[in-house]
Design a protein that fits this description.
Blueprint lengths: L15 H10 L5 H22 L4 E3 L7 H8 L8 H7 L3 H9 L13 E3 L6 E3 L2 E2 L11 H11 L4 E6 L1 H6 L2 E2 L10 H17 L4 E5 L9 H17 L4 E5 L9 H6 L4 E5 L7 H7 L5 E7 L9 H15 L4 E5 L21 H4 L5 H16 L4 H19 L6 H8 L12 H12 L16 H12 L4 H22 L16 H4 L2 E5 L6 E4 L2 E3 L3 E8 L5 H9 L6 E5 L1 H6 L2 E2 L5 H21 L4 E5 L14 H16 L7 E6 L8 H7 L3 E4 L10 H6 L4 E4 L12 H12 L20 H23 L1
Parallel strand pairs: 1-5, 4-6, 5-7, 7-8, 8-9, 9-10, 10-11, 15-17, 16-18, 18-19, 19-20, 20-21
Antiparallel strand pairs: 2-3, 12-15, 13-14
Length: 769
């Protein structure tokens, strides 16, 4: 009964990779320094997995920025705008980070690749770009180099490759008249070449990640899978192939997957345990099954009794030698090590006993094998007994259940989810209240957070700064930010969110039912890491969370200042959520807490309130059949949070880095007065859904990509806004960046926003001419 892992967190226990990459970008570290840090992390992670008892350890799962970007370099899918960099530097760091981040240092004014969510996770990948005449070649040696590195260290390494069909499906055609799957026959020779090289270097197993197999696939995509794996099997029949599927059930794609010429089929049984029985019946006699029993997406301890029951069923049907054990997916999506959490005032010991991070999940995989094979051994009997006690402790804990929350939910009425008047009535009232110019300018919420600001929060935690001193320092930051925005002549201001460590963690620290961590970092994109709170129990707001900062900011200026809140669906999606009740019920609990905050902000005189929902699209089920129910309860949760606002109070929301076409009706049903979205990287392409639907409310399509250090010109922003004006009513158009400015520096943000304001004024002048 072999054990293996699908992937391990890249960032390091203490975000060493983030710090090294940012050191390289700022020229504090050399390329050699960066690669040395990366090599050290790979070795450390391989050692952790070997020490845990993992038989096959993944390699090529490591990435400096994004694994899909890595694969674009590997197969030579380099857009034409980067050709000069490729010609000059080859497939090195200059090209790599230019594709990830855009114009970099003196490398030219280059627009980065579009970024979007990796299935239904908060991880963002860089979208491959394909043209009709696209060619592929083995350009970067990374998969082979990391396999050679692992083998030299004696690691039982298993190369991880992004499967050819999923790679193409995850990309976009950048010109009309063809489908990206038509490129498959040009791509497959690169795979064949790489597989032959891996075999020559001693590889035995290769893992192909094909997560698109859990999606709704048409006949063309299914045929692409058959053709692809026939070529792969013929190219190097000596290798043994693991087909990894995750994030859902294979369902109607099971027969397709089982018929592919692969030796091992991996199933995500954390997300879709119901698929086990059908899969056991569908495997061919020569195939093994990999049971993804340990949840790679959440932090709760594995329920050993439940997992052992599934292992027993698989062994009974297939025999022990054809059953493998693994996490459900890559452990990229969970923090590194629970043992780093030593502050009991942050993560209570009782809650900590219910959790397992990446390192502990490896131990769970090995322990499950031991329990399945040696149930009479005293050591494993003790493991099982303790696990049962931990599960029961969590079920019975008084921390989890709050009767007042349950009673309030039971009293809700349908009218609690509806604004008092329709949008047209509200819009008229709001225009009379705010008297904004055409194309009002604003930002999304957060302003640059310097090391000074982060140090303030740390000093408050360390108690080297009193609460009074901290509050005074934050007020000083807010006042400076208000004056800075007034100088830029922005129309609608924000307080800057200097008191917030993260848009979800901040609220998790202030609501019951949540616990936070000190080192529970998870990669969101590139070097951006977040610490999702652990949502373990019933949620309730016990005191105002943002009112003091918003009202102080508003007192400094006659211009409107938006109150800034995170929406219930995003708090749900970007937390590690309890799995003992329906997610819809948890979302409604959070919505009630945000509703209370909306009421208090409004009563304190805040006339614009932004309830961000960047994760709404992310939470969409991967299968179309399950989407209607999700969109219904997600929309209800948002409206429950916002509907208490009076007609004159303008409710904003923000969504970023998502495809909107298939959920546009649900977005309209949120009934937000103003929505801001990401559109600059896609050159307004994402606006198409709002146009086709004739979205009725006000909208701010982002004109400044804040995830790149590149500063766009006013002319470029005017061109984007003209694209928007060609399809949207001018009276409904706002001007704003794509997302919050937290990760940008003050100087570049000032230049970019000055250009943005200039672009808006230029359009206003043209309207008046």
């Amino acid at each position: 009964m072999l054990t293996h892992n699908l992937g391990y967190p890249r960032i390091g226990d203490h975000r060493e990779l983030k710090k090294a990459c940012e050191g390289y970008w700022s020229c504090r570290l050399s390329a050699a320094d960066l690669q040395a840090v990366a090599s050290t992390l790979r070795r450390r992670h391989w050692d952790v997995q070997r020490a845990a008892g993992i038989d096959l350890v993944p390699c090529n799962d490591f990435s400096l920025y994004d694994h899909v970007l890595d694969w674009s370099l590997t197969v030579g899918a380099i857009p034409a705008r980067y050709q000069s960099l490729l010609d000059r530097y080859g497939p090195g760091l200059e090209l790599y980070f230019a594709m990830a981040r855009g114009g970099w240092q003196a490398r030219g004014d280059l627009i980065p690749l579009e970024m979007t969510k990796w299935f239904d996770t908060n991880y963002h990948y860089l979208v491959p770009e394909f043209t009709r005449q696209q060619t592929f070649s083995w350009l970067a040696r990374k998969p082979l180099a990391e396999f050679e590195e692992a083998r030299a260290l004696g690691v039982p390494a298993k190369p991880v490759l992004l499967g050819p069909v999923s790679y193409l499906l995850l990309g976009k055609e950048k010109e009309p008249g063809f489908h990206r799957l038509e490129l498959l026959d040009r791509l497959l020779p690169v795979y064949a070449q790489l597989l032959q090289a891996l075999h020559a270097q001693g590889a035995t197993y290769v893992q192909f990640d094909e997560p698109c197999l859990v999606l709704d696939l048409d006949a063309t995509a299914k045929d692409a899978y058959r053709r692809a794996y026939r070529v792969i099997a013929a190219a190097c029949p000596q290798l043994r192939y693991i087909l990894a599927t995750y994030f859902g059930a294979l369902d109607d794609n099971l027969a397709l997957a089982a018929a592919l010429p692969v030796q091992v089929l991996h199933l995500d049984l954390a997300r879709a345990p119901q698929q086990l029985e059908v899969a056991l019946s569908g495997l061919v006699a020569t195939q093994s099954v990999s049971l993804g029993l340990v949840d790679g997406r959440n932090v709760w301890k594995n329920d050993y009794a439940r997992s052992l029951e599934m292992i027993s069923r698989a062994v009974e049907r297939l025999g022990e030698e054809r059953v493998w054990l693994a996490p459900s997916c890559s452990l990229l999506h969970v923090p590194c090590d629970l043992e780093l959490e030593r502050d009991e005032t942050v993560l209570p010991p009782e809650v900590k006993r219910w959790l397992a991070f990446a390192r502990q999940k490896l131990d769970e995989v090995a322990t499950l094998r031991g329990l399945a094979q040696a149930t009479t051994c005293k050591e494993y009997t003790a493991h099982l007994k303790q696990n049962l006690l931990d599960q029961e402790d969590r079920r019975r804990s008084l921390r989890v259940h709050r009767s007042a929350v349950q009673a309030r939910l039971a009293m809700l009425r349908p009218e609690d989810e509806q604004r008092a008047s329709p949008f047209a009535v509200r819009q008229d009232k709001q225009r009379r209240v705010f008297r904004l110019p055409w194309f009002p300018t604003t930002t999304i919420g957060s302003l640059p957070q310097t090391e000074e600001v982060r140090r303030l929060r740390q000093r408050l935690k360390d108690q080297t700064l009193s609460a009074e001193q901290y509050e005074a320092a934050i007020r000083s930051q807010i006042e400076r930010a208000i004056r800075w925005q007034e100088e830029l002549d922005l129309d609608v201001l924000v307080h800057g969110e200097f008191e917030r460590n993260d848009m979800v963690e901040y609220f998790g620290e202030r609501l019951t039912g949540f616990a936070t961590t000190v080192n529970g970092w998870v990669q969101s994109y590139g070097t951006r890491c977040v610490k999702p709170p652990v949502l373990y129990g019933d949620v309730e707001r016990q005191a105002p969370m943002t009112v003091v900062w918003s009202t102080y900011a508003q007192s400094l200026t006659p211009r409107p200042v938006k109150g800034m809140l995170t929406g219930p669906v995003t708090i749900l999606q970007w937390s590690f959520v309890r799995d003992d009740q329906p997610r819809a019920q948890t979302a409604r609990q959070i919505a009630l807490a945000i509703r209370d905050e909306v009421r208090d902000l409004e009563q304190a005189g805040i006339g614009m309130i932004q309830i961000d929902e960047p994760a709404l699209r992310e939470g969409l089920p991967l299968r179309r059949a399950a989407r209607e129910d999700y969109l219904k309860w997600a929309g209800q949760a948002f409206r429950l949070a916002a509907a208490i606002a009076a007609d004159e109070t303008q409710i904003h929301t923000h969504m970023c880095y998502s495809e909107f076409n298939d959920i546009i009706e649900a977005i309209a049903a949120l009934d937000a007065d103003v929505i801001t979205i990401e559109t600059s990287r896609s050159q307004m392409e994402l606006l198409d859904a709002f146009v086709a639907f004739r979205y009725p409310n006000e909208i701010g399509p982002g004109v400044y990509d804040i995830h790149s250090p590149r500063v766009p010109s006013a002319e470029e922003m005017v061109a984007l806004l003209r694209k928007a004006l060609a399809v949207l009513p001018a009276r409904n158009l706002w001007v704003n960046p794509d997302c919050g400015l937290k990760t940008r520096g003050w100087a570049e943000a000032h230049e970019a926003l000055a250009n943005m304001v200039a672009a808006a004024k230029r359009l206003r002048a043209q309207m008046q001419a």
